[in-house]
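Invent a record, attention on tokens:
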Amino acid sequence: MESGTKVGGHPQTVDCDKQIREVLNALVIRNKNKRVTDRLATIAEMLLAPVVDVQMLRHICSNGLPEEAGRLRVFCWMVLLGILPPEKDKWQASLLLN
């Protein structure tokens, strides 16, 4: 079965890092507000780390996420709610189960 094929409504493989980078690149291109762009880059860096620092992510997100955060917001909430574990190598299995 090829990558990206849906099984039971879920993608067979999910490349979260690729999605995070694509979202960040699109946001940087569209958004000219340096403060917002820097904040989104910080959030993306945290989500791209091998292990997400949940306490730091909670602290950054406690001030709210910019509207421009889009799909980054989804990943933040999934980590903060425990749907995705802090360890990135476990995200694939968690996403396929949920």
